[in-house]
């Protein structure tokens, strides 16, 4: 688990604390301090970008995401640090599967990318995530193949399956459908030259918003509709699903996608 970015003012606070503790250590040489246990500075918000850790293992996807997908997503969220956000990465192979009770309780928004290891996520952790969303208002963002992630399926209460899955050279034109929705603030229509086609229907509850719509163009020229992002409110929390994000495509390096995800973090975050 790594802190990728944190607010500049908070970095200064930590330096000041280290200096003070160093001075104190001169008087009490035996004292040791775990800085991870220090309380978060007032006003700081935390987004955790979680991954199952397979994108940087597969030979094809490793070419695109050599440091794993969660690192690329976290880098794209860097502008949030200037607005008081701490950005942390976590993964399935970490202790407590990346989400200890303390980390989960400190998280305002959890971003989830999973693909091949949905079943490895412990049910106990899933229950804690769902509780944080429903009862405490933590935001939850599921990316691409995370439509089958245990937390999303538990939150939505449906199979969360698509009608088809094809990585066959399909492209997509993505259209801003609800221009006043906060998730698409500053976003204009754009295209992805390659996308894994997730064909309708999508077995989920009726969303409260579909800020981005899409039209797939198959290799044979045939077109088909596909929703690109969907929003729900589940209990006290907000849930966002984003369709693009296949591990062999560079979606998470694209400026439009990075802006959408940064907007989604702020939209799903609980109000303070």
CATH class of the domain at 2-6 and 43-161 and 228-268: Alpha Beta
Following the backbone from N to C, one meets helices and strands in this order, namely EHEHHEHEHEHEEEEEEEH
Strand content: 25-35%
Mean pLDDT: 88
CATH architecture of the domain at 2-6 and 43-161 and 228-268: 3-Layer(aba) Sandwich
Assign the CATH superfamily of the domain at 2-6 and 43-161 and 228-268: Class I glutamine amidotransferase (GATase) domain
Largest pleated sheet: 10 strands, mixed
CA(first)-CA(last) distance = 26 Å
Low-confidence stretches: 11-40
**Roughly what percent helix?**
25-40%
Strand order of the largest sheet: 1-3-2-4-5-12-11-10-7-8
Descriptors:
272 residues, alpha/beta, Rossmann fold, ten-stranded mixed β-sheet, two-stranded antiparallel ribbon, 28% strand
Description of the structure:
- The protein is an alpha/beta fold.
- It is built from 7 helices and 12 strands.
- The protein starts with a strand and ends with a helix.
- Helix content is 28%, strand content 28%.
- It has a domain of 165 residues: Class I glutamine amidotransferase (GATase) domain (Rossmann fold).
- About 11% of the residues have low confidence.
- The strands form 2 sheets. The protein has a 10-stranded mixed β-sheet. Strands 6-9 form a two-stranded antiparallel ribbon.
- It is globular, with a radius of gyration of 20 Å.
